[in-house]
């Protein structure tokens, strides 16, 4: 089954017919359907399917198994590729699945061409990469790499109040077994993730990542007092919406001052009635920038502005960090080797977080980007032309072939 056929099979899964956006949250029915698709693709190719302890899946091509002469040197660690199947709310079709569909297609190409890898090649589907359900991005790879405390992960809750532990248990996994997996990491030599480019920076069909800029998520709680919208005099109100609104504007100003980006894209208003003053507002701030200090300064300024805006309204403000990832510079030797295997592709940084960034703390990792003509991502207009996707498959095959040779 070629790239385009696989792509078409996944397209309707979790797609909102009205907006064209995808809703594939970890372990919800559409994402489980994507996982079943992944297992089918592995089975069809005779790849060994591994479910790790942290909800991630890997399809292994071990050419020594039933394909003529044993070739894999057991001492050689595997080359891992792949991406994620989950989406942000209303996300695009390409963010995540492109890397996985391309990985299966690249393995097919290598087999058709009679490639003789000396290392196993694994195709990974990492769990909850977007953090759209439990709030922490790259949760599956963070657990694998030991980048999050398993006890904290178990207690994360989704929008319905279900804990990560409950959801794992429901999916047949043991919540007490999650956490760093040295045995699995020890079998992997490097990880190369192909991903759709999420900005407008790439002018050629395929590029190579240099770095991921520092990025994080913060939660701001504004606690006021719920009351009647008609009978409560302005002077008597403790309305948390007002400092919240000030904070949103302050985030934009702070980003401009510090040369960063800051976004408030999610807010929860309690109780959320038209004729009621809110009792509390929870807002999430996403901030990223070229350097750690610039991002830290942005968040500190937003926090200060929120407290200042809250004081006259007698609203309490709390600012909590949900996750933070320092700058990731991808392994230089691997990056050069990947770019070399592609005959010198453009090298560019990205403002988007990825499993490859998390895993780079434990393994040499690299990323390939496929051009996105709209420059839009995390929204339905996210796009890659089929010809560019096929160029991505060729590029990934060339990289895997090179890395798995020696
Ligand atoms: Zn992604």
Q: How big is the Rg?
A: 23 Å
What kind of assembly state do the chains in view correspond to?
A: single chain
Q: What is the rounded distance between the termini?
A: 28 Å
CATH superfamily of the largest domain: Zn peptidases
CATH topology of the largest domain: Aminopeptidase
User: Secondary-structure element sequence?
Assistant: HHEEEHEHHHHEEEEHEEEHEEHEHEH
Structure description:
The chain is an alpha/beta fold and 406 residues long. The strands form three sheets. Strands 1, 2, 3, 4, 5, 6, 13, 14 and 15 form a nine-stranded mixed β-sheet that branches. A four-stranded antiparallel β-sheet has the order 9-11-7-12, covered by helices on one side. The protein is elongated and about 80 Å long. The chain is built from twelve helices and 15 strands. Helix content is 34%, strand content 23%. It has two domains: 290 residues, Zn peptidases (Aminopeptidase), CATH 3.40.630.10; 110 residues, Alpha-Beta Plaits. The mean pLDDT is 95. The protein binds zinc ion. Zinc ion binds next to loops.
What is the strand and helix layout of this fold?
Elements: H1 3-10, H2 29-44, E1 48-51, E2 57-61, E3 78-84, H3 97-112, E4 121-126, H4 139-145, H5 150-155, H6 164-170, H7 182-186, E5 188-196, E6 206-212, E7 215-223, E8 227-228, H8 241-258, E9 261-270, E10 276-277, E11 280-288, H9 292-310, E12 316-325, E13 328-329, H10 332-341, E14 347-350, H11 355-359, E15 365-370, H12 386-405
Parallel strand pairs: 3-4, 3-5, 5-15, 6-14
Antiparallel strand pairs: 1-2, 2-4, 6-13, 6-15, 7-11, 7-12, 8-10, 9-11
Helix pairs in contact: 1-3, 3-12, 8-9
Bound molecules: zinc ion.
């Amino acid at each position: 089954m070629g790239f385009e056929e696989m792509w078409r099979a996944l397209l309707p899964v979790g797609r909102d017919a009205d907006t064209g956006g995808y809703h594939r949250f970890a372990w919800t029915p559409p994402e489980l359907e994507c996982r079943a698709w992944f297992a089918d693709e592995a089975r069809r190719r005779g790849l060994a399917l591994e479910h790790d302890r942290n909800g991630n899946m890997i399809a292994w091509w071990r050419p020594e198994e039933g394909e003529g002469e044993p070739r894999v040197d057991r001492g050689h660690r595997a080359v891992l590729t792949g991406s994620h199947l989950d989406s942000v709310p209303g996300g695009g079709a390409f963010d995540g699945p492109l890397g996985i569909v391309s990985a299966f297609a690249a393995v097919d190409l290598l087999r058709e061409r009679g490639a003789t890898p000396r290392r196993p090649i694994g195709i990974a589907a990492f769990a909850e990469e977007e953090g759209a359900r439990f709030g922490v991005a790259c949760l599956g790879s963070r657990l694998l790499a030991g980048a999050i405390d398993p006890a904290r992960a178990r207690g994360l809750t989704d929008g319905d109040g279900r804990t990560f532990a409950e959801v794992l248990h429901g999916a047949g996994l043991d919540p007490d077994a999650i956490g760093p997996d040295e045995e699995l990491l020890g079998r992997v030599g490097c990880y190369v993730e192909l991903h759709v480019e999420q900005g407008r920076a790439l002018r050629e069909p395929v590029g190579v990542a240099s770095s991921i800029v520092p990025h994080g998520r913060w939660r701001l709680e504004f606690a006021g007092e719920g009351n009647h919208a008609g009978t409560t005099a302005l002077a008597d109100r403790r309305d948390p919406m007002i400092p919240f609104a000030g904070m949103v504007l302050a985030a934009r100003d702070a980003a401009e001052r510090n040369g960063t980006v800051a976004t408030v894209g999610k807010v929860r208003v309690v109780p959320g009635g038209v004729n009621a003053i809110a009792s509390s507002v929870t807002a999430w701030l996403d901030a990223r920038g070229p350097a750690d200090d610039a991002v830290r300064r942005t968040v500190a300024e937003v926090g200060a502005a929120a407290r200042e805006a809250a004081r006259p309204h007698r609203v309490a403000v709390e600012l909590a960090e949900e996750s933070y990832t320092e700058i990731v510079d991808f392994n230089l030797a691997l990056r050069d080797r990947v770019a070399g295997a592609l005959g010198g592709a453009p090298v560019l940084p990205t403002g988007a977080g990825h499993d490859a960034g998390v895993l780079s703390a434990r393994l040499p990792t690299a990323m390939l980007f496929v051009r996105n003509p709209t420059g839009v991502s995390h929204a339905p207009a996210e796009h890659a032309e089929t010809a560019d996707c096929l160029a991505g498959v060729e590029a990934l095959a060339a990289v895997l072939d090179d890395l798995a040779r020696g």
